[in-house]
Design a protein that fits this description.
single chain, 465 residues, alpha/beta, 8-stranded mixed beta sheet, 4-stranded antiparallel beta sheet, 16 helices
Length: 465
């Protein structure tokens, strides 16, 4: 038993063998191992396998990351005369121009030097670390305590635990389209059906509420909402969030709110966490350090349990605890640094990051808006910008995958085709690259589009020019 009243993982590991120890301290498992083997009849010997027959599990065969499936199948051979510019990777640390705060690094150094965080923690996280997260995110309309926080190995594990706790094989979940591809990857691997609800580019990627509601049936167990959005960079207004909550409330559907980009919004916009906006819809809010603190490799995430009217009750909380025990919890060193990271990171660090992202987004939007055949959608937060391709003006290419593949071949610029998000004829740009590199990339994209663009009035002979 730990000091905070939570059973340690050592207890769970050791207790599994407790029944095998007799009163005199002899390990019965060991006795069994060295005891004489019973005689085996020739008939049973014949029933043993005569050759190896190892097969992959059904879960592994049902696990597919659309991004990897598409990218791995693309013929990506950059132009040898132009340096490669990758605008496809959702990792803000790749180019080294967005380091985390020195205070964040110091918190980690202090945690290591303390020698207190080298062992196992409770699978749901240290009590003190959970308290720090609860205090940081607690709001008057949605108060939190340590018991409402489960620490996870990154936000992706938080999402997986939430889906696993709420859904059974044969159930279905509602997922935004375009949306983060791992939602579907995780669900389908568990035998959970995915229904895609549409986000509307002409309305700054707001949800098509009527279409969303039409998808709900008696097997719908969860609505996933991502705000701010990956891949869209959109930020929902308070009114729109309330409209989504109204749909969930009418049909008694809990919400998994992916808010990993929470507060990463531009100054002329405002982020509203979902939980304080409802009095009845239960919400599992998933977040983490990865993006706002620019440390995705540290793998620290969390689930915030907002249980309106005790709908989840003890069962969902217990489910999350049991599921967290499968990997024995998140990194303990980062947990040790968490309180300091949350409370001591200077506001200037956040402001500088957001200022950079907004500036790059505006540059990218302006540059691409001047290119015939492209329709960028200005984001309001996160790290992404979506660009529509008017495919009828690029008859050489069948789809966005071919378009972006040739862009690599000719201009050494890699943008992620939005088919990876099940939203064809768009591509996603990550705006975390250095400004000069972004300008160079936009210039190359323009050169590529001007070369391949065809007016609708032009005849087919133009394709031979």
């Amino acid at each position: 038993m730990t000091g905070n009243g939570v059973l340690s993982n050592d207890f769970y590991e050791d207790s599994a063998n407790a029944h095998a120890v007799s009163e005199n301290g002899v390990n019965l498992n060991a006795v069994h191992l060295i005891s004489a083997q019973p005689s085996v009849s020739p008939t049973k010997l014949k029933s043993r396998r005569q050759r190896w027959n190892v097969r992959p599990s059904e879960m592994s065969k049902n696990t597919l990351n659309p991004i990897r499936a598409i990218v791995d199948g693309m013929k990506l051979t950059p132009n040898p005369h132009k340096s490669m510019i990758a605008l496809s990777i959702g990792d803000p640390t790749v180019f080294g121009n967005l380091p985390t705060s020195e205070s964040v690094l110091q918190a980690m150094k202090d945690a290591i030097d303390s020698h207190k965080y080298n062992g196992y923690a409770p699978s749901v996280g240290y009590q003190k670390s959970r308290e720090a997260v609860a205090n940081f995110y607690s709001q008057p309309g949605a108060p939190l305590e340590a018991k409402d926080v489960v620490l996870t190995s990154g936000c992706s594990q938080a999402i997986e635990l939430a889906i696993s706790a709420l859904c059974n094989p044969g159930d279905n979940i509602l997922v935004p389209c375009p949306g983060f591809s791992l939602y579907k990857t995780m669900a389908v691997s568990m035998g959970i059906h995915v229904k895609l609800y549409n986000l509307l580019p002409e309305k700054s990627w707001e949800t098509d509420l009527q279409q969303l509601e039409s998808l709900i049936d008696d097997k719908t167990t969860c609505l996933i909402m991502n705000n701010p959005s990956n891949p869209c960079g959109s930020v929902f207004t308070k009114t729109h969030l309330c409209n989504i909550l109204s749909v969930a409330s009418r049909h008694c559907i809990p919400i998994l709110a992916d808010e990993i980009y929470g507060d990463m919004v531009f100054p002329d916009c405002e982020f509203h966490s979902l939980a304080p906006l409802t009095r009845d819809v239960p919400i599992l809010s998933c977040g983490g350090l990865a993006k706002r603190w620019l440390v995705p490799g540290w793998r620290m995430g969390w689930i915030l349990i907002h249980d309106r009217n005790n709908v989840f009750g003890p069962e969902i909380r217990e489910a999350l605890v049991r599921l967290s025990q499968r990997i024995l919890g998140a990194c303990t060193v980062v947990q040790g640094a968490l309180e300091s990271i949350l409370n001591s990171t200077p506001a200037e660090f956040y402001q500088n990051t957001i200022s950079f992202l907004k500036s790059n987004s505006e540059i990218c939007f302006y540059e691409l808006s001047t290119i015939p055949g492209l329709t960028p959608v200005m984001p309001s937060g996160a790290m992404y910008l979506m660009v529509g391709i008017e495919m009828e003006h690029f008859p050489e290419f069948q789809n966005d995958v071919e378009f972006t593949e040739r862009l690599v071949t000719e201009e050494s610029v890699f943008c992620l085709p939005a088919t990876a998000f099940e939203y064809p004829n768009f591509f996603r740009i990550v705006v975390t690259v250095p400004e000069e590199m972004l300008l160079e990339a936009c210039g190359r994209i323009k050169e590529f589009c001007v070369h391949h663009y065809r007016h609708l009035s032009q005849g087919s002979n133009d394709l031979d020019q």
